[in-house]
Amino acid sequence: MIIYFIILFLVLIVFSILSKKGENNNLSFYLSGFILVIFPAFRSSNVGTDTNNYVGSFQNLKYLQLPIDKTNSSLEIGYLMLEKAAYFISNQYWVLLFLIALLSVGLSLFAIRKMSLNARISIFIYITLGFYLFLFNGARQSIAASFFGISFYFLVKRNLKYYLFWILVGAFFHKTILIMIPFYFILKNEFSIKKLFYYSILSFVALTFLSRFLLLFDEATIDRYSVYEDRGAQGGLLLSLFFIVMTFVLIRFRKYIKTENLAYFNIYLNTCVFSSIIYMVVSLTGSDVNFLRMSLYFSFGYILIWPFILNDVPMFNRLLPRVAFIGIHLVFFGIYLSKMSNLVPYEFNPNLFP
């Protein structure tokens, strides 16, 4: 587990050294991005629950066929093209893992670079809350969620055309991103407790009628997600509790946010609220814990909201609250690594340096 903490601290040190105070230096992004891409790219296929599935599919490629033949695959065409591109470069699976990480991390850091008030804090959240670690398992959805980061930038800028464009691009990697289309009209609204109540009720109704929503997707996707609906697993309770409590804390801090920052804060807070609603609904209905994956699309709310809080909320001018903020996230990071997704122990690809 220690190697994950080393990567985290290495990235933070890069930012501390290379970033000028109050600026997001490009070199700090390039070097930290390089670290965050190489680390998952050089891992063994045993690291991550789903990694062997992706590697197995990649190693079954016997020849290149262009244009892409999707008739015999349930995978989205964007991912198939990425897989073919990796195979064209080399039949070693580290190339595929490298391209997956390059897209996922690169797009996420680009979105952070464009939107964050403090990139170092945002990247700390990106890593410690498990959003970065998601690419070790759900590669396709991780890429789609990173494309949503670009869409989210255009939501903040109130540009519907480009918001929809980047969601459609993300759908070439994971179709579930299409669920985010109506959220353009929801997330940009001013936050209120009344709306929070309505959103919670609608989310319960949406999950109740999940099978109807699944009709929007192809048969393979329906099969995968209907399995989640039927199994009725009840895991993830502590994970749900953490995010629900965190969101209520964020709501409490809203009254301290400066007026000039409040419009952005409302968007990020609404995004966090919907993430927590997903956790709450899954926990209370006994739905399969894998539905929590849908919360990944709302992760940029947490990534972007904390720089405002640390900047505007008076209590964080003191050392102890800042230390507590860091400590809580580090503890969560350690628990996530130990309990989730077969991430520990980390192993290097044994064929990387034969």
TrEMBL record:
The chain crosses the membrane at residues 93-112, 124-156, 162-187, 196-215, 235-253, 265-285, 291-310, 319-337. The keyword Zinc does not apply. It holds the Pfam family EpsG. The keyword Membrane applies. Keywords: Membrane, Transmembrane, Transmembrane helix. InterPro entries: EpsG-like (IPR049458). It comes from the Bacteria. This is EpsG family protein.
